[in-house]
Design a protein that fits this description.
Blueprint lengths: L1 H10 L5 E5 L13 H10 L6 E12 L4 E11 L3 E7 L5 E8 L2 E6 L4 E5 L2 H7 L5 H8 L11 H5 L4 E5 L2 E9 L5 E8 L6 E8 L4 E13 L2 E12 L4 E13 L14 E2 L2
Parallel strand pairs: 7-15
Antiparallel strand pairs: 1-12, 2-3, 2-14, 3-4, 4-5, 5-6, 6-7, 8-9, 9-10, 10-11, 11-12, 12-13, 13-14
């Protein structure tokens, strides 16, 4: 369970449904569009919210050997905090995570341990420049790439633009230190102009991360994916986190409930 809790930290390293849109497998002809027009559509269709409250999230954690089915509660105050509480059967508290613009905090009640860091942790350990804004965009189905998370930053970035299957695709191949090549792909749904898949892969090392969004639903007048799948993969390992959203409320009052008990030991 410890490895699953750490995986949750990394990957999250972060109302009733009236209609459901599933991405179909059949191919169709997409209209031609310029990259500039695509970005305008992406920006105009971004989720407009102040807070998000997901009272019931079905959470699945998988690795090569184990699988865990858990429950979670998610609260987001835009540009302020992301709070996640994870519990097992019978309501047993498994983990709590609090992301703020300048810190990452995680507690494991079962192990009586905690973790505190800033976002340099992800760059130093995983060589990925994840920030609070990046986690916020990932969890709210907004445009991002794994190295330049804000829309404003990526608009000045050079992408190759193409159509693939039923999606518009932006991708980049960048040279890194020691001859490494990093490939990023961003698939954009042509109907709602939201990302439906974002991936990054080190082609030399054979490691990478991906986020996939499915089942766009109308939650009280706002479109949001009913399912978000995170993957961290390498030649030897494949870790997966799946979030299934049943009920979502927007623009209601939310607050973080996070306290590190004095007897907990720090994780490094």
């Amino acid at each position: 369970m410890r490895s699953s809790c750490v995986l949750l930290l990394v990957l999250l390293c972060f109302v009733s449904c009236r209609s459901v849109k599933e991405i179909t497998e059949s191919r169709r002809d997409l209209p031609n569009i310029t990259e500039g027009k695509l970005f305008k559509n992406i920006i105009s269709n971004e989720l407009d919210y102040n807070t998000i409250y997901a009272k019931k999230v079905d959470l699945s954690l998988k690795d090569n050997k184990n699988s865990h089915s858990l429950k979670a509660i998610l609260r987001i105050q835009r540009d302020s905090f992301i709070w996640v509480s994870v519990s097992a059967s019978l309501g047993v508290d498994v983990a709590r995570l609090l992301l703020t613009p300048d810190s990452v905090k995680f507690i494991s009640p079962r192990e009586k341990k905690y973790f505190v860091s800033d976002y340099s942790y992800f760059a130093e350990r995983f060589d990925v420049g994840l920030t609070f804004d990046c986690f916020q965009r990932i969890l709210t189905n907004q445009f991002f790439d794994f190295e330049s998370c804000t829309t404003e930053a990526v608009r000045g970035k050079r992408y190759k633009f193409d159509k693939s299957g039923n999606d518009y695709v932006l991708y980049s191949l960048e040279e890194k230190a020691l001859g490494r090549k990093v490939l990023q792909k961003i698939h954009i749904d042509p109907d709602c102009f939201r990302p439906n898949a974002v991936s990054i892969e080190d082609l030399e090392e054979g490691v990478g991360m991906s986020v996939k969004y499915k089942y766009i639903k109308d939650f009280g007048g706002k479109l949001f994916p009913g399912k978000i799948t995170f993957n961290v993969f390498s030649d030897n390992d494949n870790w997966e986190v799946i979030l299934n959203f049943d009920r979502l409320e927007f623009d209601v009052e939310v607050s973080p409930n996070f306290k590190i008990p004095s007897k907990y030991k720090r994780m490094y």
